[in-house]
Amino acid sequence: MFEVTFEVLLLLMAAGFAAGFIDAVAGGGGLITVPVLLIAGANPVTALATNKIQGLFGAATAAITYARGGHVNLRTQWKSAVIAFFASIAGALLVSVLPVELIRYALPVLLIGIAVFFATKKGLNDEDRAERLTPAVFAATMVPLCAAYDGLLGPGAGSFYMLAFVGLAGYGVLKATAHTKLLNFASNAGALAAFAVVATPWWLTGLAMGFAQIAGARVGAGLAQKQGAKVIKPLLVLTTVSLAMKLIWDML
What we know:
- By secondary structure, the protein is mainly alpha-helical.
- Helix content is 77%, strand content 0%.
- The chain starts with 5 loop residues before the first helix and ends with a helix.
């Protein structure tokens, strides 16, 4: 019934749990799941498409968990989520038009820059700061930019959302993490909608990994709410640097 053997499915579900945990705290869970899907025999496009399936579950679980903890009001985010959904579809459709390879070369530099920002910026904690963009301007600019990138390529999208919320919306680290998750869910959904047309995702395998993602996301979001910036910042720095190193390795 599944696209892989039972033993491989267990490995993929374990990867889904770990990715759900990482994504709920700092993003970057695709660092775990996409390579494991490739090892399991998926071609690159199928791996990316299947990764979007299972990622939906983790992002949704993390968003709900943070909302229940009082760190985000999902009802006030629905307009931004709609923007992220359609911008992600647009990004996926632009893959044949935009210079994707050039973007790939620039990504490691951008990700390392994000890591340096969160590692060295003084005063980055769970306290809000002065906003540089109004919510309306933020939703009209940064949300579609990050979501379109998520549909176009994907790796590091959560980090870009985080940087935007912290640097431009003035959110504290925990609040920024909480607000990232619904947008992650929406842009994942948009990208999956596009992939469903142009690719062949492993639907059943992705759903099984998604259930494991739920468990990992609940644990990760719970830890993040207890520890806040103390655990989010180091994990964010680690995942962004790891992703940058992987992208550089793939280009060699």
